[in-house]
Description:
Layout: H1 6-10, H2 14-24, E1 32-35, H3 45-60, E2 64-69, H4 79-91, E3 99-101, H5 106-118, E4 122-125, H6 129-135, H7 153-164, E5 174-177, E6 192-196, E7 210-212, H8 214-225, E8 229-233, H9 240-250, E9 256-260, E10 263-265, H10 272-280, H11 295-301, H12 305-315, E11 322-324, H13 326-340, E12 342-344, E13 346-347, E14 350-355, E15 364-369, E16 379-384, E17 387-391, E18 411-414, E19 419-427, E20 433-440, E21 457-459, E22 462-463, E23 468-475, H14 484-491, E24 504-512, H15 515-521, E25 533-535, E26 539-543, E27 553-559, H16 563-569
Parallel strand pairs: 1-2, 2-3, 8-9, 10-11, 12-25, 14-20, 18-21, 23-27
Antiparallel strand pairs: 4-5, 5-6, 6-7, 13-24, 14-17, 15-16, 17-22, 18-19, 19-20, 23-24, 25-26, 26-27
Amino acid sequence: xxxxTAEERNSKNFLEEIIERDLKEGRHSSVLTxxxxxxxxxxxxxxxxxxxxxxxxxxxxxxxTNLRFDDTNPVTETIExxxxxKHDVNWLGYEWAKELYASDYFEQLFEFAxxxxxxxxxxxxxxxxxxxxxxxxxxxxxxxxxxxRDRDPEESEDLFRRMRAGEFExxxxxxRAKIDMASPNMLMRDPVIYxxxxxxxxxxxxxxxxxxxxxxxxxxxxxxEKITHSLCTLEFMSHRELYDWFIDKLELxxxxxxxxxxxxxxxxxxxxRRLRELVEKKYVDGWDDPRMPTxxxxxxxxxxxxxxxxxxxxxxxAKRDNLIDVSLLEFCAxxxxxxxxxxxxxxxxxxxxxxxxxxxxxxxxxxxxxxPEDETAGxxxxxxxxxxxxxxxxxxxxxxxxxxxxxVGRNVRLKSAFIITCDDFVKDNGGNVTEVHxxxxxxSRSGSDNSGIKAxxxxxxxxxxxxxxxxxxxxxxxxxxxxxxxxxAKQEGVFTDYVNPDSLNIAPAACAEPALADDFASTEKSGDxxxxxxFMRKGYYYPDKYSTxxxxxxxxxxxxxxxxxxxxxK
Length: 570
Ligand code: ATP
Ligand code: MG
């Protein structure tokens, strides 16, 4: 598995070393980090990693973390996304110190821009975007100065104010930082820092028709908030020089940017823009489709916040990008769900089992613990009678030696009930087994077995007259290649070419023990706090948001064992 070893986890990571150095050398007296999502989609598991790093580090050093919406691009951002992000961060178990919006700094950022213009560090450029691009040069060839580069600061200030006043069309002018057209860092070649955009913003409405670029907004927002350590992913490495340049020229609070590796996971994608495409083109049932790597999708599928946090800790922070196997997240889910889930018996593909020495109208309530890992989870009663369902796959007409389930002449234990011995079976005209006949051994009752009879296997079962029908949804990988985006680039296709058409499988009505109906009736219909279940010998399951008492629907979170890893090895 690709997670870090225990030793690596216990030793300090490079961000912790930086923070400890800064505190020791008195560069900062406390730690303030921020999580800065752009509200242009729902958060995904990659964001969970960033959240875990930002909140985790602040927490470790007694500091705080702000939630700052990086809402400087009015076109793609909405309130729905803001609300979902707040909900997800909370659900993951984190509390931010302040809820802030980069758009609240628009006035201040405008003032910063004026300051840069006056100091001769920015100018209004009338070039078209094509001209600007052409003037940028290439990594090996320096750029050329724009003819507006040496424009008088007073003229630039006047034009910039008129840009704000809405006097110019989109794309007719920009504000550019005046840095170095020959810099080996392309971002330093007089980057555009303000654009004209006649777009309504979800918070500032039509107040603005010029918007700052990411680089103009991000570092300055950090400095305004006095963020000590601004942590971001590696692709922002080349922005650091520009980040420092603004802080230096504007003489702001010395926030510093540090980069760590982003989380990439196999068989899925980690980009809000692409996830939005899956939603809009209806490959999935919304942002919270249980196959999505979004926090809301994972929640709906039955992953717990604890499992996601554990996963983020195990992958740790690295300086190099790598690809994490989804099975690590599934491993973390099993670890936690094993401790908290209620055990229930559900037969997916039933075959009738008749206990021939049990009276026809007699039923007995058998007690069974809800969770052997947790005494406080209590127990429930399960009705037992003459006619039961077991899984079709648990009976074989002609079994191999090592088949420890049911076959004529063999014993098995029925979970929380009795040991039974199989005597014979009935077939229909088509040769299908329709009924299995067994005898039970009265002294073999679970908990007080003094029968001396041996049974190697234990089967789950349900009493036929008490069956409660449920719908069960099983999920497979959303994509059928490890890296859909890279694969699409190689094949000159699009990433959606690799959407796995068989990623959702709705099982024919499964037969559940009656307790499951009661569990469900006693929980609220929607909400994030539904009980987690283990369907014994099957996997972990969570009630879907569309589930009702009349039509219960369960999502399979994970199987009990990692069947995928085994399949891949074959
Ligand atoms: P996306 O392409 O999915 O929109 P983004 O980086 O543009 O990703 P933001 O909302 O801008 O998304 O990101 C908020 C924070 O989360 C940033 O600091 C970003 O670096 C971090 N982040 C985003 N994706 C990942 C990832 N896969 N792993 C770790 N951190 C991530
Ligand atoms: Mg972004």
